[in-house]
Design a protein that fits this description.
two-stranded antiparallel sheet, 10% strand, 391 residues
């Protein structure tokens, strides 16, 4: 009723009242200069423009104490028990650093239990760089004692160490490479007779079962594509496998091993690679004449200290055993090879873990084992190089 006529467009918006400026906590942040146009894939960062005033980043220079884990130190201990735990800890620590020849950081001036937590973190960091096979460090509390236990493991990298014998058979019948093949034959004899690498033509081996399964599969289904070629490949794998099995198992190859090395004169790159491989294998044969590759490949309950862990993660139904991924076999070519790899990979995908060489060491005042994984480390390198050379 009281509205003014024709007032549309005559009003002006009232300006907001400005607030007083608030002082920022950090005065400025580092800006980024305008990026120049550059081609795709250039990883050069744009030029950073620094602020002309200091920023509040002093917290980056502060060393924070580590967060304690319940598994490291048991809470609510009495003072007497805490003192006993602390004494046992440093006693075990002195044995550990002496065994692995490392220098621990000084932590005794920190209060309990931060001193133990700091020492654990420092020792783990040093062991990772000091020991090739270091796997885990545990602080064990058994009864009234506290001490270290260490697991060392040889990491095989989920690799199939299958050594083909058909290429070696072909080299033995090649005049140009007969001497190279004789060297490699000595290497095979060492791996078979001394290092206990399984041979696929023996009935108790894993690959013998797989080859037999492929043979039964071909016989039962005649309509399989390229069935004739697959049968020929299987027949060749059996015949050449039996011939090479007799040669590889002959101990005379070890007797002539050194003589073949000394008289060998390489003529090309392949000969030189054969010579280098044979020299590494011969050194292993001299240093570890009676050591098997399975010497430390026990299931955990056979070698693990009972106080290391109550649960045993190893059993035949969940773990790929070493004798399944280390073996001689026919060849890495053809339809049978493709089917064999398919069968092996499908089976291994059902397992949760791979069995590998493992040793455990406890530092509780008793005699520390002198076991190590040097032999396994060198042998796996020889196996890997051997497979590559013959493939």
């Amino acid at each position: 009723m009281n509205a003014t006529k024709n007032n549309i467009g005559n009003n002006s918006t009232t300006r907001r009242k400005k607030n007083k400026a608030t002082a920022p906590t950090v005065e400025r942040i580092c800006r980024v200069d305008k990026a120049d146009e550059r081609q795709l894939g250039n990883t050069e960062r744009p030029t950073e423009i620094r602020s002309d005033l200091s920023t509040s980043n002093a917290f980056l220079r502060i060393c924070f104490m580590p967060r304690l884990k319940e598994s490291e130190i048991i809470a609510k201990q009495s003072k007497r028990r805490s003192a006993k735990t602390e004494r046992d800890f440093y006693k075990s620590l002195s044995l550990l650093v002496k065994h692995y020849d490392i220098i621990p950081m000084p932590t005794k001036h920190f209060n309990y239990p931060y001193n133990i937590s700091l020492a654990l973190r420092d020792i783990e960091k040093q062991l990772k760089t000091k020991t090739e096979n270091w796997q885990s460090l545990r602080l064990i509390e058994k009864g009234s004692e506290t001490y270290f236990a260490i697991e060392e493991r040889c990491n095989t990298g989920a690799t199939l160490f299958y050594i083909p014998v058909v290429p070696l058979y072909q080299l033995l019948h090649n005049k140009a490479y007969r001497k190279s093949a004789s060297l490699l034959l000595s290497v095979c004899t060492y791996l078979y007779r001394n290092a206990d690498v399984p041979y696929y033509r023996l009935e108790d081996t894993y690959l013998y079962y797989n080859y037999e399964m492929l043979n039964d599969w071909l016989e039962q289904d005649e309509e399989i594509e390229d069935s004739h070629n697959s049968k020929k490949e299987l027949q060749r794998a059996e015949i050449i496998g039996d011939i090479m099995g007799q040669k590889i198992s002959n101990p005379k190859n070890l007797l002539f091993f050194e003589q073949r090395l000394k008289s060998f004169r390489p003529k090309d790159n392949f000969d030189r690679e054969c010579l280098q491989l044979a020299e590494k294998a011969f050194k292993l044969y001299c240093d570890y004449p009676n050591e098997s590759i399975f010497r430390n490949a026990h299931y955990n309950n056979a070698i693990k200290p009972q106080d290391m862990d109550e649960d045993d993660p190893y059993n035949e139904e969940t773990v790929v055993a070493m004798d399944k991924y280390i073996s001689f076999f026919a060849e890495s070519d053809g339809l049978i090879y493709d089917n064999l790899m398919s069968c092996v990979n499908n089976e291994f995908n059902e397992y949760a873990e791979t069995q590998e060489p493992i040793i455990f060491k406890t530092f509780n005042g008793s005699d520390i084992t002198d076991k190590n994984l040097d032999f396994e480390n060198q042998l796996f390198k020889v196996l890997n190089e051997f497979c590559r050379l013959l493939n």
